[in-house]
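Quarterly update from the structural biology core.
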Amino acid sequence: MKALPAFGALLTASVLLVPTVSQAARFNSVSVPFADLNLATDGGATILEKRITNAARTVCEIEDSRDLDLASATSACRDQAVAGAQPAFHAALLEARNPSVTVGSAAIAIVAQ
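Predicted structure, tokenized:
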């Protein structure tokens, strides 16, 4: 019976993600949902890490890869965005692997700095 609430959370996260991604260039942030993942497993954690990395690419989009200064700034932006998500990532893993800990969110905000 846990599948129904998990599906509802996934559906909600999916609906919320669409407008956030489409507005990422304007707001320089995106929400990364993880309600559909089992973070108690290494596989679930790896998928969430990949989602965070992809979200960092979205919020720190390079416009002209031939401009070395811009490419360097974009790389730094992505690194900072991933680093900024690490506390929420680790909190989500802790909650999944230790049921007595409650984080209360099923998404991680990735923000360009």
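The beta strands are 29-33, 107-111.
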